[in-house]
Amino acid sequence: MTKKRIALLGSTGSIGTQALEVIAAHPDAFGVSVLTAQNNAKLLIAQAVRFHPDVVVIGNEKMFDPVHSALSHRGIRVYAGDEALASVVESDSIDVVLTALVGYSGLLPTIRAIRAGKTIALANKETLVVAGELITQLAKKHQVGILPVDSEHSAIFQCLTGEEQNPIEKIILTASGGPFRGKDRAYLATVTKAQALKHPNWTMGAKITIDSATLMNKGLEVIEAKWLFDLTPEQIDVVVHPQSIIHSMVQFEDGSIKAQMGLPDMRLPIQYALGYPQRMKADFPRFDFTAYPTLTFEKPDSGTFRNLALAYDGLARGGNRPCVINAANEVAVAAFLNDEIGFLEISDVIEHCTTRVAFVSTPQYDDYVASDREARRVAAELIHANV
Ligand SMILES: NC(=O)C1=CN([C@@H]2O[C@H](COP(=O)(O)OP(=O)(O)OC[C@H]3O[C@@H](n4cnc5c(N)ncnc54)[C@H](OP(=O)(O)O)[C@@H]3O)[C@@H](O)[C@H]2O)C=CC1
Ligand SMILES: CC(=O)[C@@H](O)[C@H](O)COP(=O)(O)O
Ligand SMILES: [Mn+2]
Fold this sequence. Notes:
The protein has 387 residues and is α/β, with parallel strands linked by helices. Helix content is 45%, strand content 15%.
């Protein structure tokens, strides 16, 4: 295997730090070309000292000076700001761009990386939610692979390996149900952010953890799956599986179902994407069937957890609607984490934005930028009118 040079966007986050564990365990297979963070200069500097990338980018321009003075004398080039984040992925020294940054900020660097012919290891699901059609068309044009990192999509991708000739009847995305599985709306009206941040099975960044609690994470994943695997909404089912051992399933036209299983550990799908097509040895803890004698499955409650239904509606409507839903959700989740709105109001903000932002049926890049901006403005206006 020739050594792959990796640009790791969002290296200080949950996926980013686990990706560096994977890279550190395989020094002959992987090298680090680029590391980026938004604010966490201290951790970014420590990572750069250890992994010695060619370049680091700190998104927040105010943090440039400390990062520059800590790293430039080590021969590491340092840049700051959004344009640097987008252009750094174009360097000849990069083979794979791992998009481990959170939210809409993943869109532009991913577009620039695809145009530069880089393989994408995609953790940042929001990129495909916002602009799935644009991204998949660009990837086709530039003959670039998009390798899923999200655990469910990695599971489906793994199940599809060797099945290239066989059409998919449907996929079944598993959902943990989050910390509030089985609760009713009266209960949800009272929940705190501390409760919502306690995911039953996974330790992740704050934004995706709240999305898991509202079931928006599964809604975003339905849209992500549509674009990754070229499916209709009717071909994408969601089943609640509270143990998060089966990471997702594919059903073929003969009725046979393939599932990918394992303990909940993101290092495995990260490593699978970075090493693809090779499965590399790893000493991650192994799953023991006798420790999990009962694996259970139930229907999602999309009447109570309305975000899942809103995401399916957005997918069916198409155009800029998923982009609007994503932006409204990002603003609403930030407001919930800032104690400005309650848990149930997250869905209210999203629904409000879908009725207020103009529909665009065949959006181009500039339409996505404008729709994102307008949805953020409308969401913030509603939140601040009610505070
Ligand atoms: N965590 C997980 O297990 C999983 C995550 N994902 C997806 O992976 C992505 C990352 O999630 P996760 O690692 O949990 O998130 P975290 O919040 O833990 O990390 C986010 C990373 O992105 C950086 N960042 C934050 N805001 C910006 C911005 N505006 N511009 C550029 N960089 C930014 C952060 O920098 P700083 O630290 O300086 O703020 C940090 O490095 C998300 O899209 C998520 O949905 C998918 C499946 C599983
Ligand atoms: C690890 C991962 O891929 C997350 O997206 C996880 O699946 C969240 O869990 P739920 O959204 O199913 O609660
Ligand atoms: Mn997931």
